[in-house]
Q: What sequence folds into this?
């Protein structure tokens, strides 16, 4: 998978050098173009490395999901700050983990902590529970379900 990624980056750099334009749009287009070329070559040759072509789109979907959650949480916190009455119901939620590796736990805790109104406090010693402080804990079961069907599910799709 690393080999395919490096080839993709190389094709992106070649594209940018050929066009002579070093804008973000050209880098993104070069990466997408390189991804398409690699996908076509691997599909025609039936070569190894097909996992790369699954992981890249799922990684992009995780990123877009994070951006959506980030915007939603920012709007929610901004509304809370601008209204005269506080409606927060803070609490600590114990979220059972399906992710197991250090990387998966680290990614999950960072995505949760980067979202306004939430902060990961600790991971249990057996690494099966994540303790999260949330500003708006109404229904703990629903909050756990949102984490499991949101960030955790998308992380597992990428890493396993």
A:
């Amino acid at each position: 998978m690393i080999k395919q990624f490096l080839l993709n980056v190389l094709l992106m750099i070649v594209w940018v050098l050929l066009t002579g334009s070093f804008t973000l749009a050209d880098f993104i287009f070069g990466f997408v173009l390189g991804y398409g070329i690699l996908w076509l070559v691997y599909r025609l040759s039936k070569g190894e490395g097909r996992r790369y072509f699954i992981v890249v789109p799922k990684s992009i979907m995780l990123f877009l999901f994070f951006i959506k959650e980030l915007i939603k949480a920012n709007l929610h916190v901004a509304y809370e700050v601008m209204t005269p009455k506080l409606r927060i119901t803070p609490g600590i939620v114990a979220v059972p983990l399906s992710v197991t590796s250090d990387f998966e736990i680290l990614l999950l805790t960072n995505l949760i902590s980067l979202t306004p109104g939430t902060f990961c406090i600790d991971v249990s010693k057996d690494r099966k529970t994540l303790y999260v402080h949330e500003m708006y804990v109404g229904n703990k079961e629903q909050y756990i379900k949102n984490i499991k069907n949101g960030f955790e599910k998308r992380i597992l799709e990428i890493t396993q």
Remarks:
- DSSP finds five helices and three strands in the chain.
- The first helix runs from residue 2 to 19.
- The CA atoms of residues 43 and 142 lie 41 Å apart.
